[in-house]
Amino acid sequence: MKKKLLILTGGPKKKLDAFVEPAKDLGLAVTLASFADLTFLLSKQSPKIVLKVKDQSLAEFDLIYIRMVGKRLEDATLVVNFAVEKGITIIDRVYEKALFVPSTISKAAEMTKLIAAGIPLPDTYFGSLYMIGDKALAHFPFPFVIKSTSGKKARDAWLVKDTHELNSAIEELRVREKQGVRFFAQELIKASQRIRVLVVGGRAIGALTRPTKWRKHFVSPVGEEIPDGLKEALIPVPEKYSKLGVNSANAVDLDIAGVDILEEDGTKNLYVIEANAAPSWNLIKKDCGVDVEKEILEYLASLVR
Questions:
Q1: 59 and 136: one domain?
Q2: What's residue 150's pLDDT?
Q3: pLDDT recorded at residue 279
Q4: CA dihedral 74, 79, 82, 83 (to 10 degrees)
Q5: pTM given for the model
Q6: Which domain holds residue 200?
Q7: Which residues contact 180 (CB under 8 A, 6 or more apart)?
């Protein structure tokens, strides 16, 4: 009898369409769904909540892979608690250990786990925006970066080069802080390239390098122009990136992760800046020639056979 796999996402279900063909090729019974498909009924006659997705009870599945939580935290909490109660394998395993607000939702929680595991990170200062303005310079000089803990990657990061820019950023971000958003300051690593490693089931299946966002602030110009950065696949994945990527994913209990690494230009020291539970892998799929969905499905199937 075929094992049944469920893949859930917090966004539109069409984001999972790329799993359809490899699932057929591998002969796997895979259901693709959005958290919007999740329902439950609680009545006086039945005190138990029976979770269903597309009218199928979650109890029918042998494994549930949460591709992305997005804003569906409450739904994800229901699914994870149900899966743990019923002994259903849940991927990523981070959800088994944090049944409410896992580290995939909070950059602060993520970095705490990475630090505890000895993963190299840039120097970081947590505190209110006013505390950042008052204390961050005691830990690292200008320029440095302010980021939110909400995990929105480069879109939620600001470079401050002097006191005027720092004060302006604090004033601008205070509105969001009052709404509950938390921020931290982090030293600027002088790395002109960023490496993204895609880890699946304890293996680095692909990696690529891209120019960093603020490279122009420390890369020497050639003539009057800053030289273009590299945009290429790393085939095979160099061992130093592979090892750090896998160790970082393990540190935050992720089975499928995109790990972002900076390699400082002068020292060649490596620093992890993110271990993403819901990475985009289109570029790795294209540039590295890796059928990512097939790799993931083969890994998931290996857990339930």
A1: no
A2: 77
A3: 92
A4: -140
A5: 0.88
A6: 193-289
A7: none
